[in-house]
User: Fold this.
Amino acid sequence: MTATEVLSTVQKQNRNQWFDKECQEAIKSRNAYRLKMMQKRTIAAEEEYKTARRATKNICKKKKKELEESILYELDENFGRNESRKFFESVRNIKTGFQPRTTMCKNKEGTLVAGEQEILKLWVEHLMIC
Assistant:
């Protein structure tokens, strides 16, 4: 608790910067059409759902492509201004991609332990031994 008070917690970063209100609204609309189609199986309902699904896919794809193009433009700018450190750091981030953080530990027997409380107990045991 003291560490949380002193260091505070870090807000979870949104890894999909392209996902905004417009994408969210399109997905809600698509889900509503899907629910409508599931409740009433008609050709018209299926067509509405397919149209909504296509539109949602295009919106999300367009947003993602715009973000990727802006990243590439920024890379080009960094390379053109001789900011090699920023350039290679950006290239490395693009190459590695998203890497989720694991919240698991191995106990003395070598089995994986998950869960915040269990991991804290393992660390307490480890610190008592040292």
